[in-house]
């Protein structure tokens, strides 16, 4: 779940840089980073969901 949270935060930063909300970076204003960041947010969300499901099952 921690990796999923990290992926979501990193994806959010990349998305904001790609959309040029966060300036002063080589990634600023490049829409490819907005797309990659959005995809990373989705991956992070999936990792969190998988982690929550494993946690709710308990020890196997």
From TrEMBL:
Keywords: Membrane, Transmembrane, Transmembrane helix. It comes from the Bacteria. The chain crosses the membrane at residues 31-52. This is LPXTG cell wall anchor domain-containing protein. It comes from Actinoplanes subglobosus.
